[in-house]
Amino acid sequence: MTENSSFRRQSGFSLTLLIIILLVGLLAGVIGAVLGASLFAKQGPAGVQGEKGDSGSQGPQGLQGVQGVPGINGTDSILQIVQNRNSTTFATDSYTLMQWSNASVDDSSLKTSIIVQAGSKLFVQFSASHRLEPPMSIWIRIVVDDLYNSSKYECSTGPPASGTYQFPGHIEFLTDALNAGSHTIAVQFYLEAGSSPILERTLTITEMRQ
Predict the structure, then answer these.
(1) Contacts of 202 (CB under 8 A, 6+ apart)
(2) Rounded to whole angstroms, how far apart are CA atoms 164 and 166?
C-alpha cells in the first residue's frame, strides 16, 4: 500500500514537471516568433493620407501699432526760388541814425519784385556779416510790399569792449497767402549807434504753396 502511494506521487510530480517544461517551451517559442517577426519583417506601404480637418476659429486681434509720422502734404510745393548775393562792402555812415532805411538805396540786390500765383506764400531769408567798432549797433528786418515786416536781428557792441568785431546775422520771414501778381521784398536797416558796414550778404526768396 505504501509503495503504490509513493509511486503515484512520483508519477504525479513527473507529470507536473513535464507540463511545466512544455509550457515554458511553448512560451519561449511564442516570444521568439514575435521577436523574429519584429526584426526581420519588412514595413508595409504607407496608407492613404486622411482628409484635412476643419480650420480652427480665428484668434483674437493683436494690439494696434504705434501711429506713424504723418507724411508731407501732397499739395505742398515750391514754385520758384530767387536769390541775390553780394560780397562788396556796404558803408552805412551816410545814413541817419534812429530810423529805418532801405538798403536798396546803395545795393539794388536787396530789393526785388517777383510775380506769384494766387494763394502762394513767400518764405524770405536774409543773411549778412557786420563789422562793428564800439559803440555800434545795427538792426536788420525784411519788408514785403511795405505792408508786412519780419521781426529783426540786432548786432551791437559797446563799452567796455574795444577793437573791431565781425558778427553774422540771419533772419527768416514767412508771409500769409498772397494775391496773384507782383510783390516787392526789401531789406531795411536801423542804425542805433555808429555806422556798422554790411559785408557779405544773401537774400533768398521762395514762393511756395501749402
Answers:
(1) 83, 84, 85, 86, 125, 126, 127, 128
(2) 7
